[in-house]
Amino acid sequence: MTCTVSASGLSLSFGRTRALDDVSLRLTPGVTGLLGPNGAGKTTLLRVLATAVPPDRGAFTVLGHDPGSARGRQEVRRRLGYLPQTPGFHPGFTAFEFVDYVAVLKEMTGRAARHREVRRVLEEVGLGEVRGRKIKKLSGGMRQRVALAAALVGDPRFLVLDEPTVGLDPEQRMRFRELIAGAGETRTVLLSTHQTEDVAMLCHRVVVMAAGAVRFDGTPAELTARAAGRVWSSRTRDAGAKAGWRTGDGSFRNVGDPPEGAEPVEPTLEDGYLLVLDGAGVDAEVAA
Ligand SMILES: Nc1ncnc2c1ncn2[C@@H]1O[C@H](COP(=O)(O)OP(=O)(O)OP(=O)(O)O)[C@@H](O)[C@H]1O
After folding, report:
1. What pLDDT is attached to residue 281?
2. What is the domain class of 5-218 according to CATH?
3. Which InterPro entries does this chain map to (predicted)?
4. What is the DSSP letter of 246?
5. 43 C-beta closer than 6 A to ligand 1
6. Which residue's CA is the closest to the ligand 1 atom numbered 18?
7. Could you give the CA distance from residue 85 to residue 185 in angstroms, rounded to a whole number?
8. Which of 149, 177, 158 is nearest to 77 (CA)?
9. Is the CB of 44 inside a 6 Å radius of any atom of ligand 1?
10. pLDDT of residue 141
11. Ligand 1 site, residue 195, Cβ cutoff 6 A
12. 251 CA → ligand 1 middle, Å
């Protein structure tokens, strides 16, 4: 399959913190989930790929363009949609004005065509009716959709989404998932999230990071399979479990190395994720 993004040996430090440590990655069309505990380096990787900050070492291309040069950076930005962790809204802007402002930054200079495109993306995210409303008057979920519309304006081939479902209620999250899945039908989407269900439901591929490095890169089914035979239930907390918690029915769900005769339980993607983090020397319970 066509490879949209190809990165090799990306490293970036902030003082003594190695936020990215020799990250290599190839992204293809569809939605790739990026999981990892707080401070794993997810936002830093997204900012590097979105050309917001250059790496100290390593290189990458987006659709064959190398952002190492000013010209290449411009070409990459033309093909990129970025939803940052904290979108910088001007609260006095209406939804239309904000997306239009982003469209201007994306060099869409023809006014009529630009306005058509702004209306199109606001319709796409279901905000056509409220496009004239001030952003400060919109709900959190609607604001996130404004940010997604801004990322989608100009129909970029590569979408970088940093925790877009954070703070949304279950209904809004489901709606957002539908939008991201739709975007991933024709584009390459890199989605950073703490929600393992987002990954299980949306992604064709998942990358797990810890301490700046890639710890897993494969399909959601492969990540889940990491926990096959390593999840079991018991009446009391099992001392041998790497992670364990009491469930609603009073039994304990344990993840780790089961004792002899343990009652196995069907693993989930989250179980596989916890075990990958445990192998990376990260406290799985804290990371969860
Ligand atoms: N601008 C910065 N200046 C100094 N340190 C930074 C900066 N940006 C990130 N870091 C550090 O780099 C490491 C990786 O941070 P990053 O925000 O990329 O992690 P993350 O996986 O996105 O975390 P979270 O899930 O909490 O958003 C952390 O230790 C963080 O404190």
Report:
1. 54
2. alpha beta
3. AAA+_ATPase, ABC_transporter-like_ATP-bd, ABC_transporter-like_CS, P-loop_NTPase
4. E
5. yes
6. 41
7. 23
8. 158
9. yes
10. 85
11. no
12. 37
Spatial separation of the C-alpha atoms in residues 23 and 45, rounded to whole Å: 9
Residue type, 33: G
Ligand 1 atom 3: residue of nearest CA: 14
Distance between Cα 39 and ligand 1 center (Å): 5
Q: Which two tokens stand for residue 210?
A: 């810890």
pLDDT digit string (tens) for 177-219? Answer: 998 999 999 999 999 999 999 999 999 999 999 999 999 999 9
CA of 185 to the centre of ligand 1 (A): 30
The mean pLDDT value for 61-76 works out to 94
| Amino acid present at 69 | S
- Nearest alpha carbon to residue 50 among 28, 82, 87: 82
Instruction: Output the CA 15–ligand 1 centroid distance in Å.
Output: 12
Please name the residue that has the structure tokens 């919109």: 138
Instruction: Determine which residue's CA is closest to atom 17 belonging to ligand 1.
Output: 43
Q: Map tokens 């780790």 to a residue.
A: 256
Burial class (CB in 10 A: 0-12, 13-18, 19+), 222: middle
Ligand 1 within 6 A of CB of 86: no
Domain segments of the chain: what residues?
Answer: 5-218, 224-287
Position 169, amino acid: D
User: What is residue 181's three-state secondary structure?
Assistant: helix
Average pLDDT for 70-91? 88
pLDDT of residue 287: 39
Tell me what ipTM this predicted complex has.
0.97
CA distance 107 to 116: 15
**Beta-bridge mates of residue 245:** 253
Question: What distance in Å separates the CA atoms of residue 170 and residue 151, rounded to the nearest whole number?
Answer: 22
Q: Is the CB of 193 under 6 A from ligand 1?
A: no
What string of DSSP letters covers 141-160?
HHHHHHHHHHHHTT--SEEE
Is the pLDDT at 237 greater than 90, yes or no? Answer: no
Judge if the beta carbon of residue 36 lies within 6 A of ligand 1.
yes
Are 265 and 251 in contact by the 8 Å Cβ rule? The answer is: no
